[in-house]
Design brief:
7% strand; two-stranded antiparallel sheet; 143 residues; 4 strands; single chain; 56% helix; mainly alpha; flat
Length: 143
């Protein structure tokens, strides 16, 4: 699999590792959107992210700089977007400023007028231990 250039097999990415971006974004999504009291899950995702990066480098799938830039780009993109989304000054009625400086952000967040709370609900009636773990025994709980 992958792309071959002059008989040399490579992944086909240019300047950053898409594999590292996917691992890092998955890690950030799990950390941001799972309940805060699941420290074991958060620690596990960070450890798995670092192991994944190590194994990408060990398998010679990417150059080191590709992996570093992939981690940097994906982490900055996630953190900047969520910082903007939680900034109440940017959700004010002064929409012309947002349309000019943050057109993609304005497109995605124009109808949101407040910070959306993290609320979790287990969608299945089974297994009950997961439902209790996520919601703390309540049907809905805000974290």
């Amino acid at each position: 699999m992958g792309m071959a250039i002059q008989g040399v097999r490579c992944c086909g990415d240019y300047m950053f590792s898409g594999h590292t971006c996917v691992l890092t974004l998955l890690n950030f999504f799990i950390t941001e959107y799972s309940p805060r009291h699941l420290y074991f899950l958060h620690t596990t995702t960070w450890v798995l992210n670092l192991f994944g990066i190590f194994f990408i480098l060990a398998a010679h799938e990417h150059y080191s700089i590709d992996v570093f830039i992939g981690f940097y780009i994906s982490s900055r993109l996630f953190l900047y977007y969520h910082t903007l989304a939680n900034n109440n000054a940017l959700t004010q009625k002064d929409g012309s400023r947002m349309r000019i400086w943050y057109p993609m952000f304005y497109f995605f967040e124009s109808s949101v007028r407040y910070t959306v709370p993290n609320e979790y609900e287990w969608p299945f009636p089974w297994p009950l231990f997961l439902k209790k773990c996520l919601a703390g025994g309540n049907r809905k709980k805000r974290f």
